[in-house]
Amino acid sequence: MTPLSSLWKKGLALLRSQVDRAGEGSLSFCCNICGAPCHTPLATLQRETPSCQGCSSTVRQRSLIYILSRHFFGHSLPLSDFPIQNNLRGVGMSDWEVFAVPLSKHLGYTNTYYHQAPKLDILDIPDALIGKLDFLITSDVLEHVAPPVSRAFVNIRRLLKPGGILILTVPWVPEGETTEHFPDLLDYSIETLPSGSRVLNNRTAKGLTQHYSRLVFHGGAGETLEMRVFSKAGLLQELNDAGFINIHIQGDDHLPHGIHWSDPWSLPITAEAPS
Q1: pLDDT of residue 223
Q2: 204 within a domain of the structure (yes/no)
Q3: Whole domain around residue 264: which residue ranges?
Q4: Separation CA 137–CA 160 (nearest Å)
Q5: Mean pLDDT calculated for residue range 19-34
Q6: pLDDT at 191 over 50
Q7: CA-CA to 149 of 20 to 30 Å: which in 9, 188, 230, 275?
């Protein structure tokens, strides 16, 4: 049974989750990660801008929990109200610890890393994990995977059970093709120059030497070099080519939990492994 305090919190959030004209476009909502009541201008509800006064979660982070809850439980629950279902097995790829820790207490979920234990290299997956997952979350990770990235999409599909779901976010642009920054990457290293700038030195399969400057790094631990910028068409093609079905761009707002998409790009995507 859901605790009365939790029902009250959800009811309060539902009543207050509306645009407040008196506040010139502000929104009251309940964070579905930490449960904090929040009030923020709509203009701050950006994909990567912290907008929860409790845990500093972003729209992107709250959307992952929203999508997971909707898929398995039929409606949006705050993380604290997730049922205990240890048989529902999932993996995160360098997920945000603020939601990864409580999620592991409710579901059979493990947060993994590329650079530390528990480790998962999506380009070299363990046989013991193939076909074992009900869900996999990878949020702003695949833009950092070495090419060809198609191997990562295929391996994610292989990890999922038939009918298992991928919850995916990456930065993507609405037009054009995916841009690979280092299409011939093979044997490479990143060097820090005396000036403090970094360069990438690469030797291709044909033995050619390449040098790249003006590298783009994203925040976070581990390997954060931007390898590519996905396009919408390119991303959907990767998922199709990897054998996924029921591919959907998840761009719906859910104001009770502070999910409002200000731009029609870089939205979350879900895809399922075929049954």
Answers
A1: 58
A2: yes
A3: 4-175+223-272
A4: 11
A5: 76
A6: yes
A7: 275
* CA neighbor of 39 nearest in space, from 7, 98, 31: 31
Angle at 64 between CA 175 and CA 74, to 5 degrees: 115
pLDDT of residue 105 exceeding 50: yes
Residue with tokens 């009543």: 15
Strand order, beta sheet including 133-139: 107-112, 85-93, 133-139, 160-169, 269-272, 245-249
Contact in structure between 269 and 60 (CB atoms under 8 Å): no
Token readout for 127 is: 């046989």
Note whether 270 and 251 are within 8 A (CB).
no
Domain total of the chain: 2
How many Å apart are CA 166 and CA 46, to the nearest integer?
23
Burial 135-167 (b: 16+ CB within 10 A, else e): bbbbbbbbbbbbbebebbbbbbbbbbeeebbbb
In this structure, are residues 51 and 40 in contact, taking their beta carbons and an 8 Å threshold? yes
Q: Are residues 34 and 163 in the same domain?
A: yes
Task: Tell me, yes or no, whether 122 and 197 share the same domain.
Answer: no
Return the percentage of the chain with pLDDT > 90, whole number: 85
Return left, alpha or beta for 20; rule: phi > 0 is left, psi -120 to 50 is alpha, else beta.
Answer: beta
CA pair distance 18, 255, nearest whole angstrom:
7
First to last CA, the chain: 33
Type of residue at 145: V
Question: Is 83 inside any structural domain?
Answer: yes
Q: What is the pLDDT of residue 135?
A: 98
Q: In the prediction, which pLDDT does 56 show?
A: 97
Strands 26-30 vs 160-169: parallel, antiparallel or unpaired: unpaired
Distance (Å) of CA 56 to CA 49, 114, 234 = 8, 24, 31
Amino acid, single-letter form, for residue 125: I
Token pair for 70: 């909707």
